[in-house]
Amino acid sequence: MTARRALAILTLINLFNYLDRYVVAALVETLRRPDGLGLSDTEAGLLMSGFIVVYMATSPFFGVLGDRRGRPRLIALGVLIWSVATVLGGFAVGFVSLFFARAMVGIGEAAYGTIAPGLLADLFEKKVRGRVMAVFFAAIPVGSALGFVLGGLVDSALGWRAAFFLAGAPGILLALLALRLPDPPRGGQDGPSPATPVAIGATYRSLLRNRPYVMTVLGYAAYTFALGGMAYWMPSFLHRVRDVPQGEATTQFGAILVGTGFVGTFLGGWIGDLWLRRNPQAYLWLSGLTTLAAAPLAYLVFTDPRPEVYMTAVIVAEILLFASTGPINSVILNVVAPAERASAVALSIFSIHLFGDVPSPPLIGAISDSSSLAQAVLIVPVAVAISGLLWCAEAAIGGRRPSG
After folding, report:
1. Using the 8-state DSSP alphabet, how is residue 402 labeled?
2. What is the pLDDT of residues 92-151, one digit of tens each?
3. What's the angle, vertex CA 260, arms to CA 41 and CA 376, rounded to 5?
4. Helix H or strand E encompassing 268
5. How far is Cα 113 from Cα 106, in angstroms, rounded to an integer?
6. 363: Cβ–Cβ under 8 A, 6 or more apart, which residues?
7. Structural domains of the chain in order of their starting residue, each with its CATH number
8. Contact 183, 72 (CB under 8 A)
9. Residue 76 CB-half CA count within 13 A
């Protein structure tokens, strides 16, 4: 019961993690208006990039601490920092002050995001990690959707500042819950293996020489490029290109995220665990094949103006994309030593954001400023296809590698 309670608490915290992260995406159109902060599309995109740059830059630091120090206190500290920073966003008076507040959110989320997956891996045995990670990462679409919905509804009723205040307010309670988490021995669920961390430089060099880890993370970076750009700009795309009213665009996309996130994430986790009994590369194959299948559907989302087509395409594409969430994060945890897990997650976070959703929102914004948003979003399906190809390639190479 201790493990399940910890999973419930960490999943709840992860939900608010993504709610705080994406509440700003629901406010982009308001922040662009003169009675908001008068931001350009490029500046609006940079708000997400500022957060992500700080998030990825501080992740290696917290990864080292997570492999060597008490994890519940580090998680609690992170939760408190990101919640206070979200509230500070409500006091912004211009682009610079809002950018600073959103960047501070990245510090808090780095403390949490690097440590929580490894803690869960030490609470549950390997054969059920796909399902455990599916539960934990189901909070991504739900929290993101709540960020869109909360941001949109509160913005309409009380203004954009109130949206930041309400999103950040639960932080103190969440931090107290984090302090009550267990901190099991590292590697306790993985049988006899060395669980003592080595020197920091040696740890990261070991990870960079680990081919399955590197290939998995490279595919994850392309995947994050696509999802980060799509999640940030989709409400604006629906409003500007498809003529959906602004409030309806944010709540509509939020509702789609909740439904497809639950279905896709849970199906992927359960199917991955079942397939793993027959194929040790099951997590990679499932992630690669479902992502490849999502690429042409993502293209339809942005090119076909018929609501019945693009809405169906976005629903099916998101189910397929979210199916890889649990399995691919399980791969990252399973292909490294137990004493390297927080560092492995930290390096993964650094890499997927450096090459993923740091460049994608402002790049789409810049292309939109120079041409149109309808043209800018067409880079998303290309990135989706690259991700699927990389994961399938590693699954094929791993399948030919002799066991043991």
Report:
1. P
2. 888 999 999 998 888 888 888 888 888 888 888 777 777 888 888 888 778 877 887 888
3. 25
4. helix 246-276
5. 10
6. 45, 229, 376, 379
7. 2-187+197-400 (1.20.1250.20)
8. yes
9. 15
